[in-house]
Amino acid sequence: MFLLIKFTLLYAVVLMLVALGGMFSERSGVINIALEGIMAIGGLAGVFVLALGGNLPAAVLVPVSILASAVAGIVYSLLLGFSAITLKADQTIGGTALNMLATAVAIVMVKAFNNASEAGNGAASAKLVYSNEAFIYKIGPFTINIFLIIGIVILIVSYLFLFKTKWGLRLRSCGEHPQAADSVGINVYQWRYIGVMISGALGGIGGFAYIVPSVTTWNFEVGVAGAGFLALAVMIFGQWKPFNIAGAAVFFAVFRSLANIADSTVLSNLGLSKNIYSMMPFIASMIILAFTSKNSRAPKAEGIPYDKGQR
Amino acid sequence: MENEYIIEMLNITKEFPGIRANDNITLQLRKGEIHALLGENGAGKSTLMSILFGLYQPTSGTIKKNGKEVHINTPNDANDLNIGMVHQHFKLVECFSVLDNIILGVEPTKGLFLEKEGARTKVLELSEKYGLKVEPDALISDITVGMQQRTEILKMLYRDNEVLIFDEPTAVLTPQEIEELMKIMKNLAREGKSILFITHKLNEIMEVADRCTILRKGKYIGTVNIAETTKEELSKMMVGRDVSFSVDKKPAEPKETVLKISHMTVPSKAHDNNAVKDVSFNVRAGEIVCIAGIDGNGQTEFVQGLTGLEKISGGTVSFLGQDITKASIREKSKMGMSHIPEDRHKHGLVLDYTLEQNMVLQRYWQPEFQQGGFIRSKAVREYASKLIEQYDVRSGQGTATIVRSMSGGNQQKAIIAREIDKNPELLVAVQPTRGLDVGAIEYIHSQLVAQRDKGKAVLLVSLELDEVMDVSDRILVMYEGEIVAQLNPKEITVEELGLYMAGAKRDKVPEEV
Lengths: 311, 513
Hints:
Chain A has eleven helices and four strands; from the N terminus they run H-H-H-H-E-E-E-H-H-H-H-E-H-H-H. Chain A is mainly alpha-helical.
């Protein structure tokens, strides 16, 4: 049971961070299907910092690596912004392309890095090894990682930003009725870029948070193993609202965690294959979305490139 | 007085590729007046207002505010000059509250956060002062169109705008709401706001406007004082010729029954009750029967049941002696039923097809237009050209014009050409003049009468009282899905008709009407 809570929190924070990122993008009117790719790139940047700066003090290493993942996520998300906002391209296709590109970029970069450091025989793997001690705190019997705290802070800030500030009001208006926003002098393009960049930052941190706390070696050939898509489902299930997203993230995380604890707990007595537990979050998301997506209240103008000339 | 005019648009010319939308137009708006801008569809009214609101830049000409030349490059510049606009299609975020929509873009804040209390007080004050009743916390999606429009007006007032542009504000309103809007506009003018009122409805101009500027085909025709003019004069200036408001027609000579509807019942999509309840009547050759009623009393569902767009749940329909209750739309069309639909964009045209493709939508499969499964494009083009000429459908690129780019009046003319050229035994015309200007309305009415005089049956469904009274030979009033009266337009007054339409009065309708 204890183990279940531990893993649930671990995954819930990741899913929530990334889903919140997706929420900002979609609330501004841009469908962000590239979350998976953004996570991979953010994770890659953060892990690189860890691998290179392993002997820096934790007080420096932690913020720098998290910042690196956020910045990498932003930069990568700008590619989506450029294609979707400036070039008015189809957002789903653009996002899919970025997902495919991300894993490839990660593999190439990690292999090149490993080749160089191992004096290159050309057959290096796409694995990076690092230490994650700096991210984990022990308080009594609990171990919590720093991302849990970051996640809660970001959740609250997201809510306040979106619903209590004028910036939130403007961002949301761009995703609902960009012509209305434009007519009262709001720069729709600018706010959509801001929405996409926030999703890049949170997606990047989320990718890093997915990789680092649980293991000390990561094979970038798997990217982030579908966590980005799961986050999309969390976002929809959470109806584009911060606290609902947090709840949905916990719900999905429970399913995801079952796979991790399947071998070591009573569940192993059931004699089911571990693969069944691994499939559960995805099956759950299919079933849930099939039932809820009918009533879902997506931002009205999401996915539609805004064209000033069209009235 | 030096600055008699708050806004002057002097010698404005705007060219688009291939077309001069505004040609040397001058418009001067006095402080505190209601100034109507009148013109047919495509006369350049919207272009001129878009220039004033900063959406377009003029090719030449100057704009002055209070006598000083200004440059309006974006809507923000217009806002800064206190020029506000209620767009024809409201610019409101549906899932925001009324208050959020009003403050959007000029949000009051305290520290980092929104501070809505002050805004709420200001909105309520304005709402009180000008008689603009709104509920600040209601969502836009939950309120009536009238209240949405009041929200738009409050948006302008909240920004302290002095020049208020209303772009065809009455097109979406019910008669009661229109009356209220007229009052509001007079109120605003009395409080010193200057109003530009774009419309093609002459009655409204006569009621509220002080002066009126008329445009025709992009050119400036003149500015007149409303007190010194008449409706007839205005429409002559707008259309360029005399327009008769009454329809010229001989008495009807009805012959044999063409359409016989007995006990038709159609379920409603909006609620559990039936939208059309046990309706029976006949339409004879050589007469125009009009179904009158306030919008939403089952007319739409009735027509959809008749034409086959919707299934009926009870009763029978017989056409030329045959039972067509279960016939398909194409079968009905082949038998000689034509349909000018209520929503021309949804049911009348394929907007992204060319004009010629739209002209043969019901006939492309006939040997005349296809051979071995391939469309004979030359035959289609020739046929379409013939119709375009005969019915005077105007478009940019002739038969190859994408229909979406045509004006509403010409789209409607295209539908009418297609439907009438089939030489139908029965023409079902649903609100055929909706959103059209007087010239086009006159034309459509004359076509309906011509059909009748050829000995065909016409079933007209209309919400416009004038149209009902002028065009029809027999009026059936529909109220809550039932026929509540059969009336002779020559024997009743508009007021009486209104009572029937509102459900205040009903007759016993004979079984066979």
